[in-house]
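Notes, p. 3: input format for complexes.
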Amino acid sequence: MIVKTVPVTQYLTTNTYFYIDEKSGHGWIIDPAAEADKLLQIIFENNWNIESILLTHGHFDHIGAVQKIADTLQIPYLINHNGNQYLSNPQFNLSAMTPEPITLENALYLKDDDIITLKVNPQICLQVISTPGHTLDGAIYYDKSNALAFVGDTIFKDSYGATHFPGGDFAQLMNSIKNKILTLPEETRLYPGHEAATSVKHEENNFK
Ligand SMILES: [Zn+2]
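Output follows (208 residues plus zinc ion):
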Protein backbone atom coordinates (compact mmCIF):
# COMPACT_ATOMS: atom_id res chain seq x y z
CA MET A 1 0.00 0.00 0.00
CA ILE A 2 1.12 3.53 -0.76
CA VAL A 3 0.60 6.37 1.69
CA LYS A 4 0.89 9.69 -0.07
CA THR A 5 0.76 12.73 2.17
CA VAL A 6 -0.37 15.96 0.50
CA PRO A 7 -0.34 19.05 2.71
CA VAL A 8 -3.06 21.41 1.45
CA THR A 9 -3.83 24.91 2.59
CA GLN A 10 -6.83 27.15 2.69
CA TYR A 11 -7.07 28.74 6.13
CA LEU A 12 -4.75 26.23 7.77
CA THR A 13 -2.44 23.56 6.42
CA THR A 14 -3.87 20.07 6.75
CA ASN A 15 -2.59 16.68 5.63
CA THR A 16 -4.73 15.02 2.99
CA TYR A 17 -3.75 11.38 2.59
CA PHE A 18 -4.08 8.98 -0.28
CA TYR A 19 -4.01 5.31 0.73
CA ILE A 20 -3.61 3.29 -2.42
CA ASP A 21 -3.15 -0.37 -3.33
CA GLU A 22 -0.32 -0.13 -5.83
CA LYS A 23 -1.39 -3.33 -7.64
CA SER A 24 -4.89 -2.21 -8.55
CA GLY A 25 -4.53 1.56 -8.24
CA HIS A 26 -7.64 1.54 -6.06
CA GLY A 27 -7.75 3.24 -2.71
CA TRP A 28 -9.11 5.97 -0.51
CA ILE A 29 -8.59 9.65 0.06
CA ILE A 30 -8.62 10.67 3.71
CA ASP A 31 -9.62 14.22 4.68
CA PRO A 32 -9.64 16.09 1.36
CA ALA A 33 -9.19 19.33 3.21
CA ALA A 34 -8.70 22.00 0.52
CA GLU A 35 -7.22 22.57 -2.95
CA ALA A 36 -9.61 20.16 -4.69
CA ASP A 37 -8.10 20.77 -8.13
CA LYS A 38 -4.62 19.86 -6.94
CA LEU A 39 -5.94 16.66 -5.34
CA LEU A 40 -7.91 15.71 -8.46
CA GLN A 41 -4.86 16.29 -10.62
CA ILE A 42 -2.84 13.87 -8.48
CA ILE A 43 -5.61 11.27 -8.83
CA PHE A 44 -5.83 11.66 -12.60
CA GLU A 45 -2.06 11.76 -13.16
CA ASN A 46 -1.64 8.51 -11.26
CA ASN A 47 -4.72 6.90 -12.80
CA TRP A 48 -5.97 6.06 -9.33
CA ASN A 49 -9.46 4.80 -8.71
CA ILE A 50 -10.60 6.37 -5.45
CA GLU A 51 -13.43 4.26 -4.01
CA SER A 52 -14.54 6.64 -1.27
CA ILE A 53 -13.65 9.67 0.82
CA LEU A 54 -12.96 8.96 4.49
CA LEU A 55 -13.24 11.76 7.06
CA THR A 56 -11.55 11.67 10.46
CA HIS A 57 -13.93 14.35 11.75
CA GLY A 58 -16.11 17.18 10.48
CA HIS A 59 -14.00 20.28 11.09
CA PHE A 60 -13.83 22.85 8.28
CA ASP A 61 -10.09 22.45 7.82
CA HIS A 62 -10.56 18.76 6.93
CA ILE A 63 -13.58 18.92 4.62
CA GLY A 64 -13.03 21.88 2.28
CA ALA A 65 -12.54 19.77 -0.87
CA VAL A 66 -15.08 17.02 -0.10
CA GLN A 67 -17.99 18.29 -2.19
CA LYS A 68 -15.97 18.91 -5.33
CA ILE A 69 -14.13 15.58 -5.17
CA ALA A 70 -17.30 13.62 -4.37
CA ASP A 71 -19.12 15.30 -7.27
CA THR A 72 -16.27 14.97 -9.76
CA LEU A 73 -15.50 11.32 -9.02
CA GLN A 74 -19.09 10.37 -8.11
CA ILE A 75 -18.00 8.70 -4.90
CA PRO A 76 -19.45 8.71 -1.37
CA TYR A 77 -17.97 10.36 1.70
CA LEU A 78 -17.97 8.57 5.01
CA ILE A 79 -17.74 9.92 8.55
CA ASN A 80 -18.33 8.53 12.01
CA HIS A 81 -21.76 8.71 13.64
CA ASN A 82 -22.29 12.19 15.15
CA GLY A 83 -20.67 13.56 12.01
CA ASN A 84 -23.93 15.05 10.76
CA GLN A 85 -23.86 17.49 13.66
CA TYR A 86 -20.63 18.91 12.26
CA LEU A 87 -21.14 18.56 8.50
CA SER A 88 -24.56 20.19 8.56
CA ASN A 89 -23.69 23.03 10.92
CA PRO A 90 -21.08 25.73 10.19
CA GLN A 91 -21.05 26.66 13.89
CA PHE A 92 -19.98 23.13 14.73
CA ASN A 93 -17.60 22.59 11.81
CA LEU A 94 -16.14 26.05 12.50
CA SER A 95 -16.55 27.27 8.91
CA ALA A 96 -18.93 29.94 10.24
CA MET A 97 -15.86 32.02 11.03
CA THR A 98 -14.68 31.88 7.40
CA PRO A 99 -16.04 33.73 4.34
CA GLU A 100 -17.31 30.41 2.90
CA PRO A 101 -19.41 28.44 5.41
CA ILE A 102 -19.57 24.73 4.59
CA THR A 103 -22.54 22.39 4.81
CA LEU A 104 -22.41 18.82 3.56
CA GLU A 105 -25.69 16.94 3.43
CA ASN A 106 -25.09 13.49 1.97
CA ALA A 107 -22.51 11.67 4.04
CA LEU A 108 -22.67 7.99 4.85
CA TYR A 109 -22.27 7.30 8.55
CA LEU A 110 -19.97 4.81 10.22
CA LYS A 111 -19.90 3.27 13.67
CA ASP A 112 -17.23 1.93 15.95
CA ASP A 113 -15.56 -1.23 14.62
CA ASP A 114 -17.03 -0.93 11.13
CA ILE A 115 -14.70 -2.43 8.54
CA ILE A 116 -14.24 -0.60 5.26
CA THR A 117 -12.99 -2.98 2.60
CA LEU A 118 -11.45 -2.08 -0.70
CA LYS A 119 -14.02 -3.23 -3.26
CA VAL A 120 -11.42 -4.42 -5.74
CA ASN A 121 -9.56 -6.44 -3.07
CA PRO A 122 -11.55 -7.05 0.15
CA GLN A 123 -8.44 -8.33 1.92
CA ILE A 124 -7.38 -4.72 2.14
CA CYS A 125 -9.41 -3.07 4.85
CA LEU A 126 -9.56 -0.33 7.43
CA GLN A 127 -11.16 -0.60 10.84
CA VAL A 128 -13.12 2.37 12.16
CA ILE A 129 -12.21 3.17 15.77
CA SER A 130 -14.19 5.96 17.46
CA THR A 131 -11.90 8.44 19.20
CA PRO A 132 -14.09 11.25 20.55
CA GLY A 133 -12.55 14.11 22.52
CA HIS A 134 -11.33 16.60 19.91
CA THR A 135 -14.84 16.35 18.45
CA LEU A 136 -17.84 14.08 19.07
CA ASP A 137 -17.42 12.45 15.67
CA GLY A 138 -13.70 11.65 15.80
CA ALA A 139 -12.59 8.36 14.31
CA ILE A 140 -9.33 6.81 13.24
CA TYR A 141 -8.93 4.43 10.31
CA TYR A 142 -6.70 1.51 11.27
CA ASP A 143 -5.02 -0.97 8.94
CA LYS A 144 -3.86 -3.78 11.18
CA SER A 145 -2.09 -5.74 8.42
CA ASN A 146 0.03 -2.79 7.45
CA ALA A 147 0.42 -1.41 10.99
CA LEU A 148 -0.75 2.11 10.39
CA ALA A 149 -3.62 4.43 11.25
CA PHE A 150 -4.94 7.74 10.00
CA VAL A 151 -5.66 9.57 13.24
CA GLY A 152 -6.99 13.02 12.32
CA ASP A 153 -6.64 15.58 15.10
CA THR A 154 -6.85 13.11 17.99
CA ILE A 155 -3.07 12.87 18.38
CA PHE A 156 -0.15 14.66 16.77
CA LYS A 157 3.56 14.07 16.94
CA ASP A 158 4.40 15.08 20.53
CA SER A 159 1.00 16.72 20.95
CA TYR A 160 -2.75 16.14 20.80
CA GLY A 161 -5.93 17.76 19.55
CA ALA A 162 -7.59 20.84 21.02
CA THR A 163 -10.67 20.27 23.16
CA HIS A 164 -12.17 23.78 23.41
CA PHE A 165 -14.31 23.55 20.25
CA PRO A 166 -17.96 22.36 20.20
CA GLY A 167 -18.18 18.76 21.39
CA GLY A 168 -14.60 18.74 22.69
CA ASP A 169 -13.85 17.02 25.99
CA PHE A 170 -10.37 16.68 27.46
CA ALA A 171 -11.05 13.60 29.60
CA GLN A 172 -12.65 11.88 26.61
CA LEU A 173 -9.66 12.77 24.41
CA MET A 174 -7.20 11.32 26.90
CA ASN A 175 -9.35 8.19 27.13
CA SER A 176 -9.36 7.88 23.33
CA ILE A 177 -5.60 8.33 23.08
CA LYS A 178 -4.68 6.02 25.94
CA ASN A 179 -7.25 3.28 25.38
CA LYS A 180 -7.85 3.33 21.61
CA ILE A 181 -4.56 4.49 20.06
CA LEU A 182 -1.73 3.68 22.46
CA THR A 183 -3.13 0.16 22.86
CA LEU A 184 -2.38 -0.56 19.19
CA PRO A 185 0.86 -2.44 18.48
CA GLU A 186 3.94 -0.31 19.18
CA GLU A 187 5.17 -0.33 15.61
CA THR A 188 1.90 1.21 14.32
CA ARG A 189 2.58 4.35 12.29
CA LEU A 190 0.22 7.24 13.03
CA TYR A 191 -0.68 9.72 10.31
CA PRO A 192 -2.21 12.86 11.86
CA GLY A 193 -4.25 15.65 10.33
CA HIS A 194 -1.46 18.18 10.73
CA GLU A 195 2.32 18.08 10.74
CA ALA A 196 4.57 15.01 10.78
CA ALA A 197 3.74 11.33 11.16
CA THR A 198 4.59 9.52 14.37
CA SER A 199 4.18 6.07 15.92
CA VAL A 200 2.53 4.43 18.91
CA LYS A 201 5.98 3.66 20.33
CA HIS A 202 7.06 7.29 20.11
CA GLU A 203 3.85 8.66 21.63
CA GLU A 204 3.72 6.16 24.49
CA ASN A 205 6.61 8.03 26.08
CA ASN A 206 4.60 11.26 26.07
CA PHE A 207 1.68 9.79 28.02
CA LYS A 208 3.53 7.98 30.81
ZN1 LIG B 1 -10.13 19.38 14.00
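The mean pLDDT is 97.
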